């Protein structure tokens, strides 16, 4: 979700480069920037190595998606606004921290409301961008002439869905989030009695109050979808698609959903035949560390090392929190490698190494690593699971709260609140993680299960992408339920008929009984 | 489903043989006899070749499960009654033919009613057998001492479920049917608006009347489960299992469901993370035919050959139908290989070879084969798909009607009714299959999709069986929804609370409005 913003803030102008000449199929890719791109690029590398020709729709001012690449061409996207993204995140983080001061039952709705306003703006911009694109007949003709075989997109960005549907391309989603929630909610029946709604910070075993909260979150996301996210697209859909088309129907028409989830992490929930799970496909065995870092790791002796990284958001934390964390680290017998950008904390101990970038995968896979202090981003969580390192979570934004709940209820993580962090709390939680063997045992059990698969998730992803290309779609895996109006889907029309028939039967029976009783009483009266 | 009967008619006495000494894990297997066993045995062969020690619970008078086997030991089961199974099927078939003379809307309920009475008897016998087994402390002690690592069972036979649960063994189902319907209905949310209920002969795109019929079938199976199938087990469950245990909860506790389905054949429907699809795992490339049969095939020239097999039930068809079929075959330019037991039809043509057994797989995979006349048993349907041979269906019993609907709506089969078969109808349908290219094109497209998998279904099955052994279960893939009471599962308690709150809010608002209005009117009156 975190990577949706840059292109949200964009107006688009496109430069279609010449297609490279290579064997295999022609794949049009519309990725989401930021952390989502890291995942998508890994798949693109694999597809490129198999001889497919790849064209990426990218933002000209992208954070992560380079314009120079040996593995793909690109269709360029130029930003209109030049708002600093870090400012946006800083503001967002402050607002989230405000929300978290409310009682827990309310705070998740408050946070969801922040996300709604972000999504509202974003989808308005996206819909305008998509309209500009679809209205540009020359550009669309060029795309059509390119004769792509597949649209591969992350549907958190609706551009790919709209473009793929317009071009009538078979479509594969590389997905976790879609519009306003987890992809599953769009495609699979998801009873809210045991499927926690995104942002609710609940797990799959809920008491009555939690189920009520989950239901309210579900209503909220329903309203959000219908009154915030969908309306900006209505004009565009009316003009360019068959009558009755809405965003949801386009999304549900995707052939295969490569969902970046694994049920070692996600709670078990209903799914559909065209959903394929590739959670953790980015994880790999660790490589040797640079010499200096390796020496630092070895210097930790039997105590080992704590690794801390809060992704891109570390500079957004308030100063007191940073000082508290640094002071807590200073009291550990362990050494600490901390990915840190900004002014050096005054309370920093000698055991702590600050770095502005760290080879996270290689550090988490290092035998000396004892714990991972993390913000709870999905990629980091899967890496922690893959390498079996227990987590101390410091969630800041978006899905990070939900992610950490998933590790916490499995006894593989503890969570501290960034809004009110103190040295004592942080130290107590970290010592608990380091000294209680169950955290390590639990995450290593998750690691064992996560790695125990019939096929690597990357090979699975590639198989299904090529499957859709080979078979020109996968319509036979798509549910017929999506073509039904909602009242038919829920059989309300049938229920009305059956209840009416029962009503008529009961009324008829009562009527007949009354007539019979009347006759009998008349006879009685006559007899008397 | 067809193989459930023999053990239904059994009283049980057990002889536990000594376990073989071999490497690997100890697997206790409770199979269903008949066609289900053919599938199970293939898996057991594979498991045996991987060094697992297998113990099979078999009936002493089994049709298919041999007592002499190099791949497994057995626990023997002795029949009490000695009713001829063919007599049972003959009676059943006559009753089904009677049912099919009713209007189509009603006939499926009539057939379902026949199955209900069969299931009612069967489950009473099964429950008594299971009680005898669980009450036999010496026998149970022997089973416990054998320290099995896994229960592998076909849950169409509840014995395996009960035994596995009692012994607290990790459990893998090799399943298509469970109690009173398709396995999915037990484990996955299955909206009846697009998921046809077993026995309804509907497909996934239903009009209003069909959805009504499907809903009624669903109600029927609900009533059947609660009032026919479950009651015989209540005493046994009360005595041997924790309070509140019912058959459904034991079944839902299975770790992995290897479902003998593939979505090339089955309509897409919701599923769960612990459901693994192995449909068609019994299919293999064809082997060369015996010399005489090969010569017969080659003698067909460019016209090719029609293969006909109605499984075990051919002798149950009435004489007129057999004569009509033979006469129709006689008019074909094709040659015909007909698996036939009984008196030779008088109208048989020179082009038709009668055999009492045929190598079905090798015939279906032969390049001269042009069509398959079949009763619609699941194994045969998957073999037809695998080898891409169009089907003329002649359904007789059980799921055969439903199976053929699945091929028919995909344009890969036609269906003729055995109850009213005439030479003309049969010939017209068969010629249509042979002469219209779309049937062959459609089933070959299904064949292509069916074979296009990331892993063979047999390897998939073995992986997940060994996964459950390795990890001592797969609890992390089981839905938390199954632990909820039904009103919580459907959030009815939450709905009541929310409606009550809305009610109080509306009532309060009206009350406040009334007070305000009263005050205002009083003030007005005073002012006047």
From TrEMBL, chains A, B:
Its main location: membrane. InterPro entries: UDP-glycosyltransferase, UDP_glucos_trans, UDP_glycos_trans_CS. The chain crosses the membrane at residues 486-517. It holds the Pfam family UDPGT. Gene3D superfamilies: Glycogen Phosphorylase B (3.40.50.2000). GO terms for molecular function: glucuronosyltransferase activity. GO terms for cellular component: membrane. Its EC number is 2.4.1.17. It is found in: Membrane. It comes from the Eukaryota. It catalyses: glucuronate acceptor + UDP-alpha-D-glucuronate = acceptor beta-D-glucuronoside + UDP + H(+). It is a single-pass membrane protein. Keywords: Glycosyltransferase, Membrane, Signal, Transferase, Transmembrane, Transmembrane helix. Belongs to the UDP-glycosyltransferase family. PANTHER family: EG:EG0003.4 PROTEIN-RELATED, UDP-GLUCURONOSYLTRANSFERASE. This is UDP-glucuronosyltransferase.
């Amino acid at each position: 979700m975190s990577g949706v913003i840059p292109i949200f803030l964009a107006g688009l102008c496109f430069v279609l480069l010449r297609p490279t000449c290579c064997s295999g199929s022609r794949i049009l890719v519309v990725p989401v920037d930021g952390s989502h791109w890291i995942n998508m690029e890994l798949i693109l590398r694999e597809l490129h190595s198999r001889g497919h020709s790849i064209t990426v729709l990218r933002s000209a001012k992208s954070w992560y998606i380079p314009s120079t690449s040996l593995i793909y061409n690109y269709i360029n996207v130029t930003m209109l606004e030049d708002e600093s993204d870090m400012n946006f995140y800083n503001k967002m983080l402050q607002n989230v921290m405000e929300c978290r001061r409310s009682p827990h039952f309310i705070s998740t709705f408050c946070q969801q409301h922040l996300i709604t306003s972000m999504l509202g703006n974003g989808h308005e911009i996206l819909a305008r961008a998509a309209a500009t694109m679809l209205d540009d007949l020359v550009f669309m003709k060029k795309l059509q002439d390119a004769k792509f075989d597949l649209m591969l997109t992350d549907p958190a960005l609706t551009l790919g869905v709209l473009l793929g549907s317009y071009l009538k391309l078979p479509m594969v989603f590389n997905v976790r989030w879609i519009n306003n929630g987890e992809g599953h909610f769009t495609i699979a029946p998801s009873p809210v009695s045991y499927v926690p709604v995104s942002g609710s910070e609940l797990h799959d075993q809920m008491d009555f109050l939690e189920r009520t909260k989950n239901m309210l979150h579900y209503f909220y996301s329903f309203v959000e979808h219908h009154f915030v996210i969908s309306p900006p697209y209505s004009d565009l859909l009316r003009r360019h698609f068959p009558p009755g088309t809405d965003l949801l129907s386009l999304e549900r028409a995707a052939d295969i959903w490569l969902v970046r989830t694994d049920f070692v992490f996600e709670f078990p929930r209903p799914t559909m035949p065209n959903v394929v799970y590739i959670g953790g496909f980015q994880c790999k065995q660790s490589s040797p560390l640079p010499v200096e870092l390796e020496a630092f790791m070895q210097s930790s002796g039997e105590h080992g090392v704590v690794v801390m990284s809060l992704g891109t958001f570390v500079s957004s934390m308030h100063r007191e929190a940073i000082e508290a964390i640094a002071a807590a680290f200073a009291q550990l017998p362990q050494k600490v490698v901390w990915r840190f950008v900004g002014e050096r904390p005054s309370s920093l101990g000698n055991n702590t190494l600050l770095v502005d970038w760290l080879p996270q995968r290689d550090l988490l896979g290092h035998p000396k690593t004892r714990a991972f202090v993390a913000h709870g981003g999905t990629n980091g969580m899967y890496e922690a699971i893959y390498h079996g390192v227990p987590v101390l979570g410091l969630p800041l934004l978006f899905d990070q709260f939900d992610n950490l709940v998933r590790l916490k209820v499995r006894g593989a993580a503890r969570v501290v609140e960034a809004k009110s962090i103190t040295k004592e709390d942080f130290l107590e939680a970290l010592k608990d993680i380091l000294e209680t063997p169950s955290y390590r045992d639990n995450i290593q059990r998750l690691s064992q299960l996560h790695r125990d698969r019939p096929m690597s998730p990357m090979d699975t992803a590639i198989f299904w992408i090529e499957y859709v290309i080979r078979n020109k779609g996968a319509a036979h895996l798509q549910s017929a339920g999506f073509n039904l109006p909602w009242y038919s889907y829920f059989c309300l029309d049938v229920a009305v008929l059956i209840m009416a028939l029962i009503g008529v039967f009961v009324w008829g029976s009562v009527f007949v009984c009354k007539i019979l009783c009347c006759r009998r009483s008349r006879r009685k009266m006559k007899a008397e």
